[in-house]
């Protein structure tokens, strides 16, 4: 079976580079080896993502984030102590993406023309995949770092094309995962400004109240970059059937994620073991299947792996070692009755269709 092009709708590459000090231009074994003595992060020595593995897995497109939270005095979630510090960190992350562009490791995509040209490049079999750059759409995961709304315009100028209002904890624009309640006043203002710029709203990490408000207020394009199904994993972090239906009505695409606690309700963050609970790549197919059943088609499911989102092999399906193993989904999905057309929808066509429509 030859590899099919993959578009991964959610990776935190720059956070890994700048806060984990990972040089993603190096081989995975070396990145892991240099971390073997470190204990400061839960996933030290267990990383699954680097440029070489992305290329090996034919992951030619990614949505790559800037991610930097603000944490108010007394908050139980870590973050920067001021919005200005959070902004400065996103600028360091941007500078890293720019350096990767200089090296030819990545190329930024902000228009349909660039999207189509990059698609043609990855379909050109005369050029080896290992020498192709990874195309990235820049997204902001949690908007805390936008000091005020004028910063949204600065960010648009350097290529930002998608924004999620919240991440974990309170959030300046909206409360995020593990919190309750609706958008803040600045959050509602930010949505207005985002629609003027036709930015993509990422609903992942919103609370239920925040989701309802944002879906009502926002008239621009909406996606859920890394989000599974609440019927299977009953926590607020995942989507209810009602939310899935609303997203389908908006022609949204939902990226399935591979963090074990989003795959299987038994998994306890940083404690459980994927081997012990037998959590495999196959588990995500149940989530995709559910969304396909609700939609009646395969047009709204995709990959939003989150594989470098503060976890590595200790919290990912046990039958994968690196992001290149996403290709295993070809065999897994066809064994589950998915036709090649459905597999291509899920692997890349849905994200590409969404972006062509949003940007044309
Ligand atoms: Zn996330």
The count of domains is 1
CATH class: Alpha Beta
Q: For the CA atoms, what is the radius of gyration?
A: 19 Å
Number of helices: 13
Terminal Cα separation, in Å?
34 Å
* CATH fold group: TIM Barrel
Give the topology string: H per helix, E per strand.
EHHHEHEHEHEHEHEHEHHEHH
CATH homologous superfamily descriptor: Metal-dependent hydrolases
Residue ranges: pLDDT <50 for 5 or more in a row? Answer: none
Integer average pLDDT: 97
Assembly state (oligomeric): single chain
Q: Tell me the β content.
A: 5-15%
Total beta strand runs? 9
Residue share in helix: 25-40%
Name the hetero compounds present. Answer: zinc ion
Largest sheet: 7 strands, parallel
Q: Report the CATH architecture.
A: Alpha-Beta Barrel
SS content category:
alpha/beta
Report the principal-axis shape: globular
Could you describe the 3D structure shown?
The structure is a single chain. This protein is α/β, with parallel strands linked by helices and 360 residues long. Helices cover 37% and strands 11% of the residues. The strands form two sheets. Strands 1, 2, 3, 4, 5, 6 and 7 form a seven-stranded parallel beta sheet that branches. The chain has a single domain, classed as Alpha-Beta Barrel (TIM Barrel). It is globular and about 50 Å long. The chain has 13 helices and nine strands. The site of zinc ion has 5 residues, from loops. The site of zinc ion (ZN) has 5 residues, from loops.
């Amino acid at each position: 079976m030859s590899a099919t092009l993959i578009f991964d709708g959610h990776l935190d590459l720059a956070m890994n580079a700048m806060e984990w000090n990972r040089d993603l231009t190096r081989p995975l074994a070396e990145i892991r080896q240099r971390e073997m003595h470190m204990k400061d992060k839960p996933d030290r020595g267990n990383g699954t993502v680097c440029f070489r593995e992305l290329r090996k897995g034919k992951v030619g497109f990614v949505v790559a984030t800037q991610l930097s939270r603000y944490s108010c005095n007394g908050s139980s979630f870590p973050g920067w102590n001021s919005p200005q510090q959070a902004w400065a960190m996103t600028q360091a992350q941007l500078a890293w993406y720019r350096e990767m562009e200089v090296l030819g490791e990545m190329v930024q995509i902000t228009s349909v023309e660039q999207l189509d040209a990059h698609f043609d490049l990855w379909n050109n079999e005369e050029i080896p995949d290992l020498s192709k750059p990874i195309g990235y759409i820049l997204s902001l995961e949690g908007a805390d770092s936008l000091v005020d709304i004028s910063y949204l315009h600065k960010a648009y100028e350097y290529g930002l094309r998608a924004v999620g209002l919240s991440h974990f904890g309170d959030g300046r624009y909206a409360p995020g995962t593990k919190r309750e309640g609706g958008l803040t006043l600045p959050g509602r203002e930010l949505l207005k400004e985002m629609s003027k710029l036709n930015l993509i709203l990422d609903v992942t990490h919103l609370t239920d109240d925040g989701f309802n408000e944002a879906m009502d207020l926002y008239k621009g394009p909406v996606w859920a970059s890394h989000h599974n199904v609440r019927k299977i994993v009953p926590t607020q972090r995942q989507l209810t059937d009602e939310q899935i239906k609303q997203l389908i009505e908006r022609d949204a695409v939902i990226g399935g994620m591979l963090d074990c606690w989003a795959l299987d309700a038994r998994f306890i963050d940083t404690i459980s073991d994927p081997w012990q609970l037998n959590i495999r790549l196959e588990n995500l197919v149940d989530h995709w299947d559910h969304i396909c059943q609700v939609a009646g088609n395969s047009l709204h499911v995709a990959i939003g792996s989150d594989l470098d989102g503060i976890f590595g092999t200790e919290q990912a399906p046990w039958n994968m070692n690196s992001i290149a193993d996403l290709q295993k989904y070809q065999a897994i999905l066809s064994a589950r009755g998915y036709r090649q057309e459905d597999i291509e929808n899920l692997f890349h066509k849905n994200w590409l269709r969404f972006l062509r429509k949003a940007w044309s």
